[in-house]
Amino acid sequence: xxxxxxxxxxxxxxxxxxxxxxxxxxxxxxxxxxxxxxxxxxxxxxxxxxxxxxxxxxxxxxxxxxxxxxxxxxxxxxxxxxxxxxxxxxxxxxxxxxxxxxxxxxxxxxxxxxxxxxxxxxxxxxxxxxxxxxxxxxxx
Length: 140
What we know:
The protein is of the alpha/beta class. The protein has a single domain (about 5-140), classed as Response regulator (Rossmann fold, 3-Layer(aba) Sandwich). Helices cover about 40% and strands about 15% of the residues. It has helices at about 15-30, 45-55, 70-75, 85-90, 115-140, and strands spanning about 5-10, 30-40, 75-80, 100. Strands 2-1-3-4 form a 4-stranded parallel beta sheet. The chain is globular. The model has no long low-confidence stretch (mean pLDDT about 90).
């Protein structure tokens, strides 16, 4: 069975797209070839790694990548997770690519105490998990 390619895009490929990548690998990795990238590569955010580990999903070995135009046009699904990536996504020349925008707040911009920041990371994590679960269920 050929796995459908899903490409998650964000600005820096450090938090939201990494979480989505981790969840789809965990929930549908047997059916999807999962990739994530950013307009820039900001490195993997340690708080994103921590909140994913809290629920048993390990993204600690993920790499922060920039968008690969070839992979972009091979994907069945291109999903942007922030408005900036949605607005600045490179042109997709393949007319068969399904492009969706799932906007989530950037937890890396959260302010406050460490606990308040982690609450934001967990809220975004949980929202992304819910959306990935919907995606997997709809594709059955």
